[in-house]
Specification:
Layout (H helix, E strand, L loop, with lengths): L6 E5 L4 H12 L3 E6 L2 H13 L4 E5 L5 H15 L5 E4 L14 H29 L3 E6 L12 H21 L4 E6 L28 H11 L5 H13 L4 E2 L5 H14 L8 H17 L14
Parallel strand pairs: 1-2, 1-4, 2-3, 4-5, 5-6, 6-7
Bound molecules: nicotinamide-adenine-dinucleotide (NAD).
Nicotinamide-adenine-dinucleotide binds next to helix 1.
């Protein structure tokens, strides 16, 4: 695949996985546009990218702000003359604590950034990418946690599960436009995500979780030993080139995922438990699939509701 001159839009680009993507795809020849909620960190990241010869532009953006997202999308087209070919929905925040202590503000922040930010990236850019007619590739970052929810991390994992689900649906939809769709599910990245609370907005400050120097240092001690962001971006590159739906470059995820999926499969009744019901329900769906025609597909992708 040629990366030369292709526009790559990357959320959360000032740090961690997203900055690694900016470096790797920039070195491959992409024209990079990074956004981040932290203006100073964004400027530093842009300076580093440019210092190594990468074509890089950027804007301060809170990805939960839909109007601002649209303005930045216009800015990308103005600066580079076209919408992105690569859309990396990478920004995310982390919060952990007992499920039962979660406040509405915990929900609104964790879901707002981790799921809402991805939704906003899709609704902002997918119609523009389709209209440009050049194809492309979308990679949204979820987490192995999106497959494995556990107490202490419920909200984060639930939001990440929804991101996996979204990518699964968009993949089928966008194939006809030549736009590939992947979901990156990391397990541990060397990044600054332990300090996520620093970007938490004041109006969503009320939390049911303990966040202090000790909890941040404890999390950081794990992330310090995570995968290098450029190495992770290399896995993303290979995932794009192979047009993989799931990019899960962490072998240690397999046993826990096997256990989870076996538990789910073991909960499905065998056909012998209800053979007549199975036959009748499947026959109905089969007829409906053949007869529904195109009634759900009449609206063009950029037509208003
Ligand atoms: N670090 C891990 O071990 C790990 C594991 C699994 C998944 N992930 C996911 O990887 C992605 C990247 O995280 P990272 O570990 O590189 O973290 P990071 O904190 O180093 O980078 C995230 C960046 O997103 C930015 N950001 C936060 N809120 C934002 C908002 N509202 N609008 C715009 N930008 C915002 C931050 O300022 C930061 O620069 C996230 O989606 C995260 O959930 C991380």
């Amino acid at each position: 695949m040629s990366y030369d001159g292709k526009v790559a839009f990357i959320t959360g680009g000032a740090s961690g996985a997203a900055f690694g993507q900016a470096q790797l795809f920039g070195r491959l020849g992409c024209r990079i546009f990074i956004v981040d909620v932290r203006g100073d960190a964004l400027e530093e990241a842009l300076a580093k990218l440019r210092a190594e010869g990468v074509t890089a532009e950027g804007a301060q953006l809170d990805i939960t702000d839909r109007a601002a997202f649209a303005r930045v999308a216009d800015q990308v087209e103005h600066v580079y003359g076209e919408p992105p070919y690569f859309l990396f929905n990478t920004a995310g925040v982390f919060a952990m604590g007992p499920s039962e202590s979660s406040t509405y503000e915990d929900y609104d922040w964790v879901f707002g950034v981790n799921l809402g930010g991805v939704i906003n990236g899709l609704v902002t850019f997918v119609p523009r990418m389709i209209k440009a007619g050049r194809g492309g590739h979308i990679v949204s970052t979820s987490s192995v946690g999106g497959f494995l929810t556990y107490d202490g991390n419920t909200l984060y994992c639930a939001a990440k599960a929804a991101v996996i689900s979204l990518m699964e649906g968009y993949r089928g939809a966008l194939e006809k436009y030549g736009i590939g769709v992947s979901v990156l599910c990391p397990m541990n990245i060397r990044s600054n995500i332990a300090r996520s609370a620093n970007t938490r907005p004041a109006h969503l400050a009320k939390t049911g979780y303990v966040v202090n120097d000790e909890t941040v240092a404890s999390l950081q001690s794990v992330y310090d030993h995570g995968m290098d962001p450029i190495e992770l971006a290399g896995h993303v590159r290979r995932g794009i080139e192979a047009n993989q739906l799931y990019i899960i470059p962490y072998p240690e995820a397999r046993p826990v995922m096997e256990q989870r999926y076996n538990e789910i499969l073991d909960s499905v009744l065998p056909v012998e438990a209800d053979p007549d019901g199975v036959a009748s329900r499947l026959a109905t769906i089969d007829v409906w699939m053949r007869e529904r025609g195109t009634i759900f597909e009449q609206k063009s992708p950029d037509a208003p509701a």
